[in-house]
Amino acid sequence: MKVSVIGLGYIGLPTAAILASKKVEVLGVDTSQHIVDTIKLGQIHIIEPHLSDLVFSTVQKGYLRSSIKPESADIFMIAVPTPFKGNNEPDLSFIENAAKSIAPVIKKGNMIILESTSPVGATEKMMCWMQELRPDLIFPIYGGDGSLADISIAYCPERVLPGQVVRELVENDRIIGGVTSYCAEQAIKLYKIFVKAECLVTDCRTAELSKLVENSFRDVNIAFANELSIICDKLNINVWELIKLANHHPRVNILQPGPGVGGHCIAVDPWFIVNSAPDEAKLISTARLVNDSKPQFVLKKISQAVSKTKKKKSELKIACLGISFKPNVDDLRESPALKIAQKVSQMGFSKHYVVEPNINQIFDQFDLENVELVDLKIALIDSDIIVLLVDHEPFKTMDFGLLSGKQVIDTRGIFQK
Length: 417
Description:
The structure is a single chain. Helix 1 crosses helix 3, helix 10 packs across helix 11 and helix 11 packs parallel to helix 12. Strand 7, helix 7 and strand 8 form a beta-alpha-beta unit. It is built from 14 helices and 13 strands. The protein folds into 2 domains: 211 residues, Rossmann fold, CATH 3.40.50.720; 153 residues, NAD(P)-binding Rossmann-like Domain (Rossmann fold), CATH 3.40.50.720. It is an alpha/beta fold. The protein starts with a strand and ends in a 7-residue tail after the last strand.
């Protein structure tokens, strides 16, 4: 068996490496020459625990290769980004490009699996794009008898937590959504190679919506917590104490508020549902608006902190602690902390420090002007205003005494609990 994984990012590369660790011949394909070259050296371009050793080992043993160009294989797994456009509509161009790139090399008996988080109907669109380029092959029909087709098509969304990807790819249940039941049966054979948990069978449309619903559930619950934090601020109540007390009820489990919601999944996926059913998805849409507005609330608190110092902004130094979208990762995708830091960099402070333990330099594309990436201690000692945006582990053990006499904005409750 030869498997080709298209897209070597936060999901594609770990999936390719785990399959290769099971002595499956795997070709990883990516449009970035830098990523391809990095993997050829047995190295990785992302931070993910245990992944480095896995990639090095499988590359050394010859089970994992990387290329910028697709090759013939038995199974193709597509794990490319699915961002949204400016109007919150899903952007399927990466899936379309991936599908068209493998169309010339697919052959009878192949299976194509889409893993990218996608709106309902994306798997069938992917199939149509390939079908247009390969009219010589018979593709399955949704709900039909897939055993009569030349190609099997399925949708199997990833369900992993950054920082735990290697473990959760193996231990988490998987949803296998076939264009037909036969397609799903064929896909299960692949996932059973490395998945120890249960493989749950359904159709591709239900599988697509299931992934979106999982992340929307989280988004709605985080929105409730974020709205509570805004209410508590107005009423001068400690939201962290409030939530702790409320959660003592046996049927209440309120999540923790923060500066917003980030990452490629929770901050994006609910919009796919809203786009598919705009008149019906009222609660989901409102939750997105609540979470997307939270950075503005944090920026308002920063302006209030400036007023309390009785000084001009040009006389003050400010530090933003954390710019990734969640604790203990280097992933900046859709990060509300990064968006806040970008706005702060334009506010005219005399110094703007950023502390981010998981990156070692601030690139131009982050749009952070006049910002210094510094160690935590330097930021705490030298700043007048401290803005805690991400609860990285090093921040939890900082010397809280260094905060004395400073304006502190704690969006994660580290200093409140």
